[in-house]
Amino acid sequence: MWDVVFQGARIVDGTGNPWYRGDVAVQDGIIADMGDLPPDCAKERVDVQDRVLCPGFVDLHTHSDFVIFRDPVMVSKLCQGVTTQAVGQCGQSAAPLDSRYVGLLKSYLGFILAGTDIPWDWTTFQDWFRTVEKLPLAGNVAAFVGHGTIRAATLGFENRPPSREEMDHMKALLREGMDSGCFGMTTGLIYPPGVYSSAEELIELAQVLKETGGLYFSHMRNESAFLLDSVRDTINIGRQAGIPVQISHHKALGRDNWGLVTESLRMVDEARTQGVDVTIDQYPYTSCSTSVRACLPPWAQEGGIGETCARLKDPDTRQRVLREMEDSMDTGKPCSWESMLRNGGGPAGALVTYTPHTPECEGKSLEEIGRAMGRNPLDVALWIIEKNEGCDLACYDAINDDDVRQVLRHEATMVASDSIPAAPGGKSHPRSFGTNPRVLARYVREEKTLSLESAIRKMTSFPAARLGLHGKGVLRPGMDADLLIFDPDSVQDHATYKDPARLASGITSVYV
Question: Is the pTM higher than 0.90?
């Protein structure tokens, strides 16, 4: 007799195949049988009532590295059906730590700390895994090595190539992470210190991934005017190193770049026909989210947040920063760096969501804050950075909905949240609580951009296969019983930019 049988389900098995009615039996956390099963075959019977039964969702792009310490249940994930998540994205991972640069590393990781009290009692990834294993986690966590973290742990925030000795040290740190159980390396090439790295540096590190069977996930160097160059560079790393690559949260930022995804997706198709294993992930929103520091030119961020704040105290340097911020918003001129002010349409399109030392700013745009304070909103951005010492977040209204649909439909795209759940009382991007239900409600039920089966494949078997999680992502005897029950007619995201932590509805049960 099995432990539990789920009966009367509309089974969407995660493969993309059409749904069918049937039952699923589970024994010791493993799917034991499927089909038309008798009701007395198990100790417990769950009547699914013709709702959808599918694999638990796999979110392969999150920033929960530290959030799991204050919320090991990960309510934001479980309540939208996510049973497995991958951390260490955009070049930022919780390990390794180096005592010489621990202060810099803490400031670098500030906006993904999100108000979490951390023991900081690890040095290596092996140490971090041991610490995490002690947490009462309700879901599964996969980890990546952050390129920015290993660079900062080797040469701080210096804007220069690593020496031979430093390069070897970075490779050793990456190898330690891979040997400890990480799935690959990620980059955040708009953020210091990743922004200071060359293609040659990344390709050399990618050789370690080749040797250890790792993946390369990239927040590319540019997602706006130089999007196509960045896609080409990312594909080239996969080609040169012979490794699988993933373009993280693919989009074209800024009104003057909308539509570029048509060509970027064509480039992905072409690379795949040439044998380069390149895929994409995406969140289904028209605003991106990152730090307020992303409004600053890269040179102003050299050396970490301490040196940034010191520069801003010098009147001449502050004026130079303000001039470059202002110039970056002129879409009639080229901009050599990824300016979120430009991409988001200026201060009106920059919604401040997390500023623990200036909470009065949360939920307001830079323009609104500037008007209330009687200050230039660009100078307000600098003030926020100084007051919060770089621990801040904002949403930027920068993405076109038609582009979202086009990327979502692409066969190489999987759904991922890029989420950082806010600290208690704070705000964040609604994707932290709404990504998967939003796809099911808006892009499946309402707009029919995707079929139900295709959408679930992009959230289950596809990301599970990308990570090499052979026991997850598909309903089949012998697979892990990470299961989700939801009503396709009522599932709905409710998280908004003003109220980003509202739980979705229509998701009945989640089993891990």
Answer: yes
